[in-house]
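Per reviewer request, we include the raw input and output of the structure prediction for the construct analysed in the revised manuscript.
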Amino acid sequence: MNDEQGRAMTGESRKERRGFASMSPEKQREIASKGGRAAHQKGTAHEWTSEEARSAGRKGGQISRGGRGKLIESPGADFE
C-alpha cells in the first residue's frame, strides 16, 4: 500500500498547498490583473454603474448589521 492509499483509508486529506494557493499574494494579484485586463480588452468585463454599486453596498450593509435593517423574510418562515 502506498502513502496515497493509506491516507485515503484513514480519512486524512491532503494538506499541502497546490496551484494558485501555493503562489505568493503578489503573484496571485499579477495573474488576476492579467485576467481583468484581458476581459476589458475583449469587452466582456463588467463595469459597475454608480447605482449598481450603491445598491450592492446597501444590501451588504443591511446584512452585516445583525438585526437592524434586515432584509424582509419570506412569509411562513418561523425563526422564533
